[in-house]
Inverse folding.
């Protein structure tokens, strides 16, 4: 018998047909009877006191149902940091002060969008403008305008990581190199903008349809800020049109629509415009990185020191986690005998920066991998070799931080080495750059202070053998529903088609923390596997009575066939046994519950993916234009569950990461974003995508379901660094300031010629 | 401490606010994207062969999407009798033969209702008319037209019940009386007509929104007749606008909309018109009853013999059960030492007759109670006394049929006796008639052949102490949701407001057989109580660790307070313990499941309600017009759960039962119903309702949750008999032919004067 019947076969997404036929109902598509439309008035000042808000004219406009301001809220500062209340610093509807352009100050519900929009113009806000500060290195200076009373020198959070004797390491180093890097911001640009339909009823129940990565978080956060009990709030999010880290915090659409609906006892829909999405939602954290490394002349790493100042924007958001993770991943995926990291997150009068695919790691990886190639070049060592020499390996412990169990980094280096060699001699002005990377499989620490398990799943097997699988995870397009159904089918031994998956509704689905930090495959997957295993056990008890093996563990189910493992031809139909089992259980369907909470795996994550990416690019010496040719990735995500899914993730990540590397940015003038639209914000288009290829390196991750771990988010980490290295190898210039635009390349080439 | 904190307090319906604010979404209100509208072409012949159906013209009409006939079905005969396939005799879409006016022969889906209606006129059906037969006493004759090949003399089902030595009983009787009765038909007249929105998708999944009393039955029946797997069908029925027995069989709206949707992969909505509702859905069974009773001169019952010929209409439907129950309830609620019953259900070319509130018992009770008053009158015995002498009592066993546990009939007779005496001397032409009755609390026999428990419930307790209660029962307006939430709150010891109830969706709710035969309070109630009790036990385990009683059973929860039963002031907050319990359970919410399947309680039901009703009425001797003055009911439904609910049920039942007694009927001409509209079909209006009063006689039913049993359906049984007795006592005439119209009274009075 084959090892797996479902796992590692290419499967189309379980909700693919619903999506391609247009039946999938996104929050955009939700319409309820008596539904009103809401809009949000936003600050046009980067920093100002609110002296007065006069809503009377707006209220008198025909068709306007309600105009609410911060005074109509409970005045609570919210945030996802339920265990660290001091980090909850955002009111959503500002009461006394605005701190960035785009911060909500009032919200309107009206009979249609146009009326609501018109009403916004009639709200009179009296501001007292305050001096603003926009760059972290300015904001941290003594005497700079201060955003929050409690944050002297605008320091929001600091982070220190250290192991080994760093000073001694540098002492012993043959070669020390230091560089400054600037990592730019990036917008998530989900196809579905932030939106919500809130429906509060006189019974005191609030239902919110919304586009989110975590219906559980939103339910709990809404209940808290609105003064409701958790389970008087229901969040429904059957389909989410992209998240990438932007949709697991409470947002203005969710909060304002709920507030309006509670006031009016009518449903209220708020959909952010594309411009609001760019200017007034959270974004990737810009970072100013100082990195110093000391190595032996044979390339052995000895000591590393990093300092970062991150542009926090006006509020904490998930930025505190990004600050920790960037520090951890700055050392990754290498064995650094000593390492010291100091991170400072600094408040600025800009839109808050927060989680985005990679969560601080793409910035760190860009700096680290760029510097490694510069070191290798100086020492005359092959880029593959210097990485191989220092690569993490199975069983390695990052002191005080992490336990590495599976690690296929070495095999990945081999594969990429082989591919580079197969390319032979490159034409002029072309280079291949590589970057090694890794990523977490979900976070360990419970800053949300949930009392529930991190992931849970419920399985119910019905009389016809069909399996209801209830998961709390959120499929935002990444394919976790498909992954969960595959894990369930494999563990239970039934067909993929026998699984009916239920998700996206806090009323029927068990708690899961949501889709962020690459949690789902490992954490929700483990919960699903546990539930399936318990359900299988119940079925096998009945089969044991018929087949009389020595013990129940002599039996297994594969593809609907319950059989003796030693003699697979002897068996019974799963469908028949299910029928008898349900009769035997007094007519109760077979039900089982599984759960997972990580423990004893360090501070970061229960498991880590690894990989090496090679980017081949042409650089036009006349214009500085970069053309991507190939992007090849050797990837260790443990046991692949769905090869098609991994490929989809790779291509998506590549588009996003290459955009981060050389086209996307959010330039500002005094806190005002200058390109808040899809014309000026330059996403990579399909025609600009290079050929991509993924070479799987299979390892077995003991902590993951069937040995699986993260696949998808980590793929966003290497590309900017690999691209910068490709440019370096093609031209001899190194750009340390993202994005690597033609202009920067052109100027650097001009500069180089001068020398 | 009070015995109960929730039970027996008047509670408004849990979904009352949603209903009165118009937010409750009935199937009527469902609209889906791309939804089409369906209509059904129905036979205009009572009996005919279908030679040919030409749909080509209809198909060519602009806006028509599909026209389907019996040829487009799998050709299966369906019915609810899954354990007795020979009783499944209805195709829904007739292929070869039609057997009643209104039988579906084709169905159309179009872009709107008008187009669909127009298309019906373009379908050309070539019929070969056959002779019809419309009355059971005609249909049973040799040589009458035969409806079904296998049913000689049109006998569909027969039923025999017998105990004791009947012939010997009559031998010993001092007085023997025999009467013939005719019990008329009655329409359910739900405010929401039969309707369904079917939505089949290319993944092979069918979702049907429908107005039903049992989403589980409809799911399974649809799957069978459409050739799908059970769990590829999802039935959603969050609100049902009345059922009364008409909505637990598969209907033409459900079947045709599903068939069309499967053909088109588009949603299709079918809503029956009020006229279709009257002519082409099922109805109460007309019965021709022969009843012979032998008694001692002191009124002691000795022997009874009954024969009934029921008008079955064209198909079996639930008529076989009505045939059994009418026979059983003909002897009820009395001790008859010997009894013999023969029932014949006879096919006729009329719309099928089936279940309706009372399910055969109102007919039986009318005949039995009318005859008892005639006997009492002849023997000079008070109507209360003759009933008291022969009343069932706690612990009585109906030989081979039923075990009576609780029985408050005697107390009911006392209460009514007292009320009658309080009325003093009545004016001329006024009479008080009484009728004793009883009813079942759900059926025992598994003719549906479900492998599941008859009722199941799931409870989940969340971190904020709110309780999710998932039930399979269907609230069609009778208030079962409120009852279940009350049972759950009481058993768990929390507030009613802490319960969040989920129902009406096969995807999330456990299996329950549905709302019919007065099942829910006892069966679903027991399942809810078991689930709550198991959940409570889990909480008490944690409380035990803190409070250290001798054993966990020394603790209880009431109103959110976990306490030592012996010292109620010593305790802990339920809300606090829940939080700790969930932490202790690895972050799993507290979950428990309960179920109930009746066993070892005879053939009929696990428990029986009892009561006596008195109707006071004026009869105008000039016109025969009857005016209801008072209707007083002494009622034993065991422990009352919700007094407001019982009162609501009483008033509803009274309106329906009085209508059956003296205004409602479905007269026909050659199988054609003559009054299929709300002008000619005479429902009792609010202004015609008498004063009603209910006097509760509380007993404790050991088989019911908190001692509760049936309340509501049984209340439909006594009124026709009590009314006929009131007319008898006011005028001296006895009308044995329902309904007791002014015309019949007038004619009988004229006849009497002549004598």
């Amino acid at each position: 018998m084959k090892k797996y019947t479902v796992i590692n076969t290419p499967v189309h997404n379980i909700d693919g047909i619903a999506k391609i036929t247009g039946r999938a109902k996104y929050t955009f598509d939700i319409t309820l009877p008596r539904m009103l439309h809401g809009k949000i008035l936003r600050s046009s000042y980067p920093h100002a006191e609110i002296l007065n808000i006069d809503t009377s004219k707006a209220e008198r406009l025909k068709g306007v149902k309600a105009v609410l301001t911060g005074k109509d809220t409970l005045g609570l500062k919210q945030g996802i940091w339920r265990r660290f209340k001091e980090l909850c610093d955002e009111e959503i509807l500002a009461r006394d002060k605005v701190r960035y352009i785009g911060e909500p100050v009032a919200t309107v519900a009206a009979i249609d969008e146009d009326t609501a929009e018109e009403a916004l113009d009639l709200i009179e806000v009296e501001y007292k403008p305050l001096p603003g500060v926009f760059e972290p290195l300015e904001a941290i200076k003594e005497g700079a305008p201060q955003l929050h009373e409690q944050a002297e020198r605008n320091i929001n959070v600091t982070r220190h990581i250290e192991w080994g004797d760093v000073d001694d390491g540098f002492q012993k180093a043959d070669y020390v190199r230091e560089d400054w890097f600037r990592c730019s911001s990036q917008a998530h640009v989900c196809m579905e903008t932030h939106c919500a339909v809130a429906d509060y009823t006189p019974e005191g129940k609030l239902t919110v349809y919304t586009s989110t990565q975590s219906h559980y978080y939103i339910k709990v956060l809404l209940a808290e800020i609105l003064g409701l009990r958790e389970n008087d709030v229901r969040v429904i999010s059957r389909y989410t049109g992209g998240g990438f880290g932007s949709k697991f915090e409470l947002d203005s659409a969710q909060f304002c629509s709920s507030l309006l609906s509670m006031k009016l006892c009518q449903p209220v829909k708020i959909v952010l415009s594309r411009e609001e999405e760019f200017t007034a939602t959270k974004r990737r954290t810009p970072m100013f990185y100082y990195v110093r490394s000391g190595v032996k002349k044979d390339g052995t790493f000895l000591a590393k020191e990093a300092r970062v100042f991150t542009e926090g924007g006006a509020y904490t958001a998930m930025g505190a986690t990004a600050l920790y993770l960037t520090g951890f991943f700055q050392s990754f995926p290498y064995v650094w005998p000593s390492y010291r990291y100091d991170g400072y997150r600094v408040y600025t009068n800009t839109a808050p920066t927060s989680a985005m695919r990679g969560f601080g790691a793409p910035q760190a990886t860009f700096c680290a991998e760029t510097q490694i190639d510069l070191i290798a070049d100086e020492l005359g060592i092959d880029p593959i070799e210097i990485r191989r020499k220092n690569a993490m390996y199975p069983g390695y412990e990052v002191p005080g931080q992490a336990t590495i169990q599976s690690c296929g980094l070495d095999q990945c280096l081999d594969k990429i080495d082989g591919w580079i060699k197969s390319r032979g001699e490159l034409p002029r002005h072309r280079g291949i750059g590589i970057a090694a990377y890794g990523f977490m499989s979900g976070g360990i620490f419970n800053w949300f202070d949930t009392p529930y398990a991190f992931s849970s799943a419920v399985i119910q097997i019905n009389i016809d053998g069909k399996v209801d699988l209830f998961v709390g995870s959120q499929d935002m397009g990444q394919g976790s529903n498909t992954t969960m159904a595959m894990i369930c089918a494999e563990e239970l031994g039934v067909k993929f088609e026998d699984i009916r998956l239920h998700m996206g509704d806090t009323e029927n689905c068990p708690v899961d923390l949501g889709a962020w930090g690459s949690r789902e495959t490992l954490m929700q997957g483990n919960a699903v596997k546990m539930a399936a295993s318990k359900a299988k056990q119940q079925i096998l008890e009945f089969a044991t009575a018929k087949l009389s093996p020595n013990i129940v563990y002599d039996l297994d189910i594969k593809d609907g066939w319950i059989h003796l493992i030693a003699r697979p031809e002897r068996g019974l139909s799963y469908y028949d046994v299910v029928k008898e089992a349900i009769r035997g259980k007094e007519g109760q369907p077979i039900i089982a519950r599984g759960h997972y909470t990580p423990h004893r795996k360090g501070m970061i994550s229960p498991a880590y993916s690894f990989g090496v990416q090679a980017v081949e690019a042409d650089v036009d010496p006349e214009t500085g234009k970069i053309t991507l040719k190939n992007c090849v990735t050797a990837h260790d995500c443990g046991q692949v569950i769905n090869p098609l899914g991994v490929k989809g993730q790779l291509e998506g990540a590549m588009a996003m990461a290459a955009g981060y590397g050389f086209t996307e940015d959010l330039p500002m003038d005094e806190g005002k974003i200058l390109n808040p639209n899809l014309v000026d914000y330059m996403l990579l288009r399909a025609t600009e995508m290079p050929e991509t290829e993924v070479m799987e390196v299979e390892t077995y991750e003991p902590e993951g379901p069937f040995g699986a771990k993260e696949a998808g988010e980590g793929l966003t980490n290497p590309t900017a660094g690999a691209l910068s290295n490709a440019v370096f190898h093609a031209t001899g210039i190194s750009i340390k300031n993202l994005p690597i635009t033609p202009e920067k390349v052109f100027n650097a080439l001009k500069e180089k010629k001068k020398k």
